[in-house]
Specification:
The chain is of the alpha+beta class. Helices cover about 20% and strands about 35% of the residues. About 25% of the residues are buried.
Length: about 180
Amino acid sequence: MSRIGKMPITVPSGVTVTIDGSTVTAKGPKGELSRTFRPIITIEQEGDTITVSRPDDSREAKSQHGLVRTLIANMVEGVSNGYQKKLQLVGVGYRAALKGKDLEMQLGYSHPVSVPCPEGITFECPQPTEIVVSGASKEQVGQVAADIRKWRKPEPYKGKGIRYEGEYIRRKLGKAAKSE
């Protein structure tokens, strides 16, 4: 039995979860998320707990069991508390600012880089070298943060680029001076 899949999901107060066959919808203070799962997995709600079970020990059912439970738990957590990723800009002249809802960054190119704000995501810039991406969907927040980071990945020689908060960049030595 899947150790993750058999754990029950507790629904906090203020969050409503609706199960319609294999479609799960979660509504809360941070928004609404909906997802359709494979019908091989059974999802049941009893009071404020949700349980996920599988019919047999087939390979497909085993692979979906823990995944479905984790995705539902992430939906419930997202609509109640939300998720956020923090990015740091490291480099001379690297900065970010909000233009309306969109994010505009100066990353050493000849032009500013503009990132449109997708539905369900909010950008914040507490400092010119910090970006906070937040939203209800863990998957969407992570993908938007990864797309922003793609504009300038951290390089190993000077450490310049866009990095996640707390990310360690392994540094390399540059060219060694010629010794005689």
